[in-house]
Amino acid sequence: MDSIIQKCTTLSHIKQVQAHLLTTGQFNLHFSPFRTRLLEHCALSSSSSYAAHIHRHIPHPSTNDFNALLRGLARGPHPTHALSFLPTIPQPDALTFSFSLIASARTLALSETCQIHSQILRRGCYADMLLGTTLIDAYAKCIDLDSAQYVFDEIPLRDVAAWNALIVGLAQGSKSNEALDLFFRMRAEGVKINEVSVLGALAACSQLGAFQAGERVHACVKKMNLDMNVQVCNAAIDMYAKCGFADKGFGIFSTMTCGKSVVTWNTMIMAFGMNGNGSRALELFEEMGRTQIEMDSLTYLAVLCACNHAGLVEEGVKLFDEMSSARGGVSRNVKHYGSVVDLLGRAGRLDEAYRIINTMSVVPDVVLWQSLLGACKTYGNVEMAETASRKLVEMGSNSCGDFVLLSNVYAAQERWEDVGRVREAMKRRDVRKVPGFSYIEVGGLIHKFVNGDQNHPRWREIYAKLDEIRFRIKAFGYVAETSLVLHDIGEEDKENALCHHSEKLAVAFGLISCSSEGIPIRVNKNLRICGDCHVVIKLISKIYGREIIVRDRARFHRFKDGSCSCRDYW
Length: 570
What we know:
- The protein is mainly alpha-helical.
- Helix content is 63%, strand content 5%.
- The chain has a 6-stranded mixed sheet, with helices on one face.
- The radius of gyration is 29 Å and the shape is globular.
């Protein structure tokens, strides 16, 4: 009977089996494993409403019957129905709570997760290993990482799934340092890692740009033969790319023994693009076109971004125009339009960018107008900046970046009254500027700096190094770009404000901490690198003979011998 139920593919088949159970008397038994199996199969298929109908006609449903329906509801298209169904179950058990937690995790229902947790404690189900893991996962997906950590620490037995649930939750919840600490603790305690473990750890390394930690994780991947999994290979490529080593990612790409997926190709094209190697990205795009793998919308987005970062304007516009006629026909979405608008805007072709926004086949989003506003700031087009700003206000955008960009456009023209008006609008709307910060990995530890930071234990050494740098770069003709300090203050104050930007502090710390000239200094910044810092770091790379890699929010800048991989186009 079990195999017959498994083969039911239509509602008619399910009704025939139900009729058989009714006529043979098995349906009305107090415990009927076949009835429960039918109910579960029906609930997990597209017939959850009929499963509820069957359940209502059971004279005395067992907990197994309740769980069968609950499981289907939790995994179905409307998991909230499972949470509504939970209170009707008279004698819930560990499976009941496990299925309910799956539903609360899918709906990000933190309040319901807490209520289920309290019921688990009252009914003494806490010792169930699977239930503990599911509870960790539910809290992590609801971004209550403190509760997830508490459950992890409290459960008496932890399997690999419990470790993985917390590692992935921490990585996805922007607690990447904690995710890596937990991964290496897992290794130290002898727990056997699997694909999920390394995917979480690699994601954390990608977020942090933690190259040394990433190499350690990749070494684990190779040692455990986990590189036979295409998802793991994709994550490793992405990790190396986001640490500024696209060539190391390409080493994985070119030697993969498992088959490459469309995600693999997309990741590698994007890797070359974000590292400023647009020509390699275009070559790989053309090579992909000669394979049997169908390009998708992300493929075109990756190659358009690569053209954007490398300043390959004509190539990018041509690709954008050819999208609909490509093999398989790829429809343009708002991100494709956004990329080409940014591409044209960076090249100073503001009128073309504005025309595309006004004639595009989909509704423009906030990002398109922000891209145009950023280009207006670069090229000093006040009139178009005001137009873009009005559109953003109409769309309800309350991003600090919108106000800051418009304020900077006015400040560059020394229109201080307009700057004051924009800042007053920010105060009225309670819009706060996102503070810039940079961080650097030294000796496996992440060191974070903000502008003018004096909280680091070695801040006096760092400031002394900056004074030395300042003296040496002036001998090379450096003059502080005080025009980038958009405040109505004196020139000396502007120069001092520029001197202690977070990325300069991080680079100075790298110079005093990493004496080996063969090791690049790698810095991550949450915002775009400023123009003055870009000039200064180019000079540092020449004077001190060091390769310096800065990852800002948009791309990588690889400084070497006084030049940058972006060719001053960013």
